[in-house]
Amino acid sequence: MIKIIKCNNKNYIKKITEILRIRKDKDFSVTKTVQKIINDIKKKKKKALIKYEKKFSNNFEIKLSKDKINKAIKNLDPKVKKAIDFSYNRILKFHSKQKLNSIKFRDSLNNKLEYKTFPLQSVGIYVPANLPSTLLMNAIPAKIAKVKKIILANPKLNGKLNAAVLYAAKKLNITEIYSMGGAQAIASLAYIQKVNKIVGPGNIYVSTAKKEVFGDVGIEGMVAGPSEITILADKKTNIEEVITSLVGQAEHDENAQCILISKNLNLIKNVNNKIRQYIKKLPRKAIIEKSLKKNGLLIHVNNDRKVIEIINEIAPEHLELNIKNYKKYLNKIFNAGSICMGKHSPMAITDYCSGTNHVLPTHGSAKFSSGLNINEFSKKISYINLSKKGFEYIGKKAITLAEYEQLIGHAESIRSRMRRN
């Protein structure tokens, strides 16, 4: 059911990267459709938005009233409310430890430099239909960073509002809520609501739309696309734990990526044989099967060097080290969105209430970016105040460099402020 790769020859990394690239390149297949939607909404604004919401979701109501929101929340199971409250508190406590630092510097010539941190003025958060946890993960860091305006885009599911997402929004004091999804929601946030930045994960249409509007608005400093997990297991790992983690990630989206790495070939074969039986009882069976068939990988390696090399090349969104002696790998793994250590730290729990953020880099972008944090919701401005003496001293060096770069206007700008001899 799942592709098995045996890393016996020298070309194993090349083979793995080629398979990963096929999944990544699929994003381009929807680009033209997404561009058309974005351009339409750019020109016709709300009229085009309504057209696409009717077409794709049969949705005729985009801006939600307070009464409708409160009515939906009233019917939410109290047990779900308590779970949201619990998650909220843990996420808040962990993210509150993150700091936004401003710096000041003064040198011996009394030149003063500052780097001040400011919150973004407005942020649009995209939350897939039924995921209150995603709203918590995105909005809590924004709140801590003191973003002034937070706007929520949350599509209906089967024509219904999601009470749990609305309850989380109320808890976060988010009052501007739009029932819209897909590429049209991203275009609306960018060109109708005109936010400064758009955050939040989504399917291939959402992630492609975010890339297309980048430049007009900001997006996270990562690719937050379809979900990924890589699991490292050995002969002592419980096979059911491996299967449930693979399946748990695959049920997100047929474009999700699930990878198992092990030095034990028997474990790999057993997982491949038994996973079919396990899937049968799950409601999202069809999605899971498509995901595992298209993007699942079972990788057999024969030494630790290859384990580390492959993990760092994959740069997974989530990495589970479901082995007893995981510490021997930790200092050598530097490309991953999050690392879950040991059998009692399944990735699935981090999606909800461990306290860490579940909006993480995908498609290998963990090689150059981090998961969502409060720094995503702020920006910095440099302040320069040079003394007369300091300007004269620094200016001479700057003129030398400007003339070397043949930017004579730069040199003259500096020279014009210098004392005449």
How large, in whole angstroms, is the Cα Rg? Answer: 25 Å
**Coarse shape:** globular
Strand content: 15-25%
How many beta-strand segments? 14
Could you tell me the mean pLDDT? Answer: 95
- Helix percent reads 40-55%
Structural class by sheet pairing and helices: alpha/beta
Protein traits:
421 residues, alpha/beta, 5-stranded parallel beta sheet
Q: Could you write a compact summary of the structure shown?
A:
This protein is an alpha/beta fold and about 425 residues long. Helix content is about 45%, strand content about 15%.
Describe the structure.
The protein is of the alpha/beta class. The protein contains 17 helices and 14 strands. The protein has helices at 12-25, 31-44, 46-57, 66-74, 78-96, 132-144, 163-171, 182-191, 204-213, 239-250, 265-279, 285-295, 304-314, 327-330, 347-350, 388-404, 408-415, and strands at residues 3-6, 103-106, 112-119, 122-126, 149-153, 176-178, 197-199, 218-219, 228-233, 257-262, 297-300, 318-322, 338-341, 378-385. The strands form three sheets. Strands 1-11-10-9-12-13 form a six-stranded parallel β-sheet, with helices on both faces. α10 (239-250) crosses α11 (265-279). The protein is globular, with a radius of gyration of 25 Å. The model has no long low-confidence stretch (mean pLDDT 95).
